[in-house]
C-alpha cells in the first residue's frame, strides 16, 4: 500500500480523516524553518499543508504528488492562491532544474517512495545553495501508545480509533523509518548529513538539513548544517 500512489477512494478517506490532523502537527514545525520565496512540497497530497504554508508565509509553493485524484484536489483547494501549483510527479524524478527552490519540504511521503535514497537525492538537487530540506515522517519505532496520541487528534470516528491504530501499526508504522533508517536514506547525497529530531509527544521524526552557500564549501566540509530540533 505504501509504495504506490493512493487510489481515489484511499485519497478521499485520507483527506477527510488524517490530512487535517497531520497539517495541524506539521505546519507549526515547518513554518519557522522555511526560508526564501520558492517552496517545493514533495508528496503534497491534496494540498492542505502547501496551501496553509503559502497563506501563512506569503510564499510560492509548488506541490508534486503521483496521485491523479490528489493533484485534482490540490488544484481545487488552491484555486484562489495564484502562487500555488500542483504537478503530478514522483519524488524520484522531479521535473525541475537544479537549484530551483529555496526550501523543500516533505510530510509523511518518504515511506511511499519506491527509492527513498533517490527521492532525497532529487530533493537535494533542486535545492539552491543555502536552502533547507525538511522531511517529516512517521517514526517507525513508535509504540501503539505513541501512535494513539496522534489518532486522538484525527477525524477518525471515536469508536474506530483503536482499530485504526492497530491497522496503522502494521501498514504505516511498520513500513516507516526509524531515526537511523531515515538518516541513512541521505547516503545517496553523501557527505550531506541531516539533523534528526522528534516532534514532541507525537510519533513523528523530522530531518533538517541546510545546504552550504558555496560550492567550494560543499567540497571541503559537511554539506548539511545542523539545525535546531523542534520539541
Describe the structure.
By secondary structure, the protein is an alpha/beta fold. Helices cover 36% and strands 20% of the residues. The chain has 9 helices and 7 strands, in the order ααβαβαββαβαααββα. The protein has helices at 8-17, 19-30, 48-57, 68-77, 116-125, 144-151, 161-171, 179-184, 215-220, and strands at residues 38-42, 60-65, 84-88, 101-107, 127-138, 195-198, 204-210. Strands 3-2-1-4-5-7-6 form a 7-stranded mixed beta sheet. α2 (19-30) packs parallel to α3. The longest helix is centred in the first third of the chain and has 12 residues, at 19-30. The model is unreliable at 215-231 (pLDDT under 50).
Give the strand content.
15-25%
Major sheet description: 7 strands, mixed
Q: Number of helix segments?
A: 9
The order of strands across the largest sheet is 3-2-1-4-5-7-6
Brief write-up:
This protein has 231 residues and is an alpha/beta fold. It contains 9 helices and 7 strands, in the order ααβαβαββαβαααββα.
Secondary structure elements and their pairing?
Elements: H1 8-17, H2 19-30, E1 38-42, H3 48-57, E2 60-65, H4 68-77, E3 84-88, E4 101-107, H5 116-125, E5 127-138, H6 144-151, H7 161-171, H8 179-184, E6 195-198, E7 204-210, H9 215-220
Parallel strand pairs: 1-2, 1-4, 2-3, 4-5
Antiparallel strand pairs: 5-7, 6-7
Helix pairs in contact: 2-3, 6-7
